[in-house]
Amino acid sequence: MSEMRSTPFSLGEIAAEGIKPEEYQEIVNRLARHPNKAELGMFGVMWSEHCCYKNSRPLLSQFPTTGKRVLVGPGENAGVVDLGNGLQLAFKIESHNHPSAVEPFQGAATGVGGILRDIFTMGARPIAILNSLRFGNLEDARTRRIFQGVVEGISHYGNCIGVPTVGGEIYFDRAYTGNPLVNAMALGLMETDEIVKSGASGIGNPVLYVGSTTGRDGMGGASFASSELTDNSLDNRPAVQVGDPFLEKSLVEACLEAFKTGAVVAAQDMGAAGLTCSTSEMADKGGVGIELDLDKIPARETGMTPYEYLLSESQERMLFVAEKGREQELIDIFHRWELQAVVAGSVIEEPVVRILYQGDIAAEVTATALADDTPIYKRELLTEPPAYAKEAAKWTADSLPGCDYQGIDVQGTYKTWNEILLQLLDTPTIASKQWVYRQYDHQVQNNTILLPGGADAAVIRIRPLDAKPEDCTIGVAATTDCNPRYVYLDPYEGTKAAVAEAARNLSCVGAEPIAVTDNLNFGSPEKPVGYWQLANACHGVADACREMSTPVTGGNVSLYNETLDSQGNPQPIYPTPVIGMVGLIPDITKICGQAWQHEGDIIYLLGNLEPTLGASEYLAAIHQTVAGKPPVVDFELERKVQAACRHGIRQKWIRSAHDLAEGGLAVALAEACIGKNLGATVTVPVSNSQRLDEVLFGEVASQIVVSVNPEMVKAWEAHLTDNFSDRWTKIGMVNQSNSDLNILTDDNLTLINVRINILSTTWKQAIETRLAF
């Protein structure tokens, strides 16, 4: 074997691969020798958190992963659920956080390309993209550069490949300064008769390399994604891949055509860890080995070493196991699409990954040692909340200045409720994201029914290839959700709230929530507080998904999201467990958006009527305070609220539905007014014990505001009375166009009275105004 060493690597060389000294010793023990450079790199990427989940795997095991609709759960490139009528949906979410921090355009673009490959590797045609994004304060010039670069990268790749970007979410907070979160989610409709799996099989079957060429871009990307960002992170630009969406479009078509021949035994996307990951995971899942000859790999650069071949994360590449004797049939398909396709190896009986180079063995490692039997760390969990959480939990609204029906004193300046509502609408997290989604082609493929910004979830028509739109009545709704401030203050309750909100958003468009993919974005699990946040959030995902009957079909873990502050201390992001959820719509003619539709419609409030200012956007944006406890989900009530909303939509009683989220009731009403420029007059009940800012801007779980056709009020209220007890109230009526939003107390005192055009202008211009700095 070439490049064998008789002496250990230095500590610096080991650390450069992301390997700890004790992990290196374990590698030596398993190999019964020291690894060579290529093997050390292979272990470095495969034993990274990004690939092997060594800190999170024990926590993920508690997730519910099976259900009546689940066809493929965790462990494959994407989850697959049964939609009925012979239709199957593949979906997945993944992160590209650190690459986007150092190279925003390519980092975000290749994040989109990578998640799309996860979808079509299963045999599904991509039909939609969503994203969940987090950035620092938009007043910061670097944040604006990252933000604009990420949006440009997402739009470039999605628009060029022809897959609509239909929805998502964006938060802005100083906690993400320097370490943005770029999570990409994709959906695909199965097009092959059989779901394509990744486990290699058939001793002697050829292994095909297909797609693009291999270069030095993306070197060690998996290790880079599993380490904190520092001032030197810009030096890791080679760890950021470079994408080609036009080539990937050809790859989609070639792969689906190849899968339909039945000649492909297994397929694996070459994403994180490139050839190392694809060979080892395919071999391990199949209980076999793979021998691969690097001399046969199409390269775009000269003089590449085995280490570089094995760790390159060049994009738009796949690895196939083909039926022996049918390899040329597959090669011909890829050549017709002007793509690379070569036999580069074979399936072998010995369960190893054996890498050949220039006639010698460049690396040889047991497949399971790379892909499954990896280090697992079961860390000690704090027995009580850390100091910051305990201190925040002591906060009560009594510490705020007193308020009256006109407004409140804010740091020495009296502000009216009108002014505070406008200030919240001007907050980038709440404000319109039209500057973003107008750059996305969200209608390509002609199946997007509810457009971005107009509903609580995206809705896509499910249309099999060559079917006419008018013959397709089944739809899928999708959303991504997580309020990171909630999770920071209480990881368990905050994560439960994220799952509940995702399901609620689907119910607001008339969809039945069916399954989840999650992206767990956290700081270092090696720190007690970081692990406490991660462990409690995972517990929250598990409990909430059981309560909502939404099993987890897969996802991604992104840890070590930290940056150095001005004193050189690592500062983690807010813990951000993003929930991607899909829902089924039996009839796409029975859906609704969030905006009022007709003058005279009656407005109702469903669900919990006890909002809190703890953890709210109002408290953070107006009073510069992050404290208190987030809303606690009552899942029995949550299920009833969502069921009532879905039923009302499917009976065509409900014309609009919008859940209460950041900014509370006043912001939700304003957003419903802005959509079609219709006003509203609403009376809110106020108890003697409630503060007015709590009623207007307090946040709450399990609450939806709906507008109902006045001709259907009798049937609607009868249904509520029979099925929903007294947890609902009629609060007002939709007014004429170009009028006002009026919010009154139940004793007829005016709290808010603002023209809709003023609300709309403030909400729509907030982000663009900041980008003009």
Could you characterize the architecture of this molecule?
By secondary structure, this protein is of the alpha+beta class. Among the domains are: 1-64 and 198-374, Phosphoribosyl-aminoimidazole Synthetase, Chain A, domain 2 (Alpha-Beta Complex); 385-431 and 592-773, PurM-like C-terminal domain (Phosphoribosyl-aminoimidazole Synthetase, Chain A, domain 2, Alpha-Beta Complex). It is built from 26 helices and 30 strands. A seven-stranded mixed β-sheet has the order 8-10-7-11-9-12-13. Helix 8 (141-161) packs across helix 10 (245-260) and helix 19 (491-507) packs parallel to helix 20 (528-548). The longest helix is centred in the N-terminal third of the chain and has 21 residues, at 141-161. The termini are far apart. Residues 1-5 have low confidence and may be disordered.
Characterize this entry briefly:
The chain is built from 26 helices and 30 strands. It is α+β, with helices and mostly antiparallel strands and 773 residues long. The strands form 6 sheets. It has a 7-stranded mixed sheet with strand order 8-10-7-11-9-12-13. A 7-stranded mixed sheet has the order 25-27-24-28-26-29-30, sandwiched between helices. A 6-stranded mixed sheet has the order 1-2-3-6-4-5.
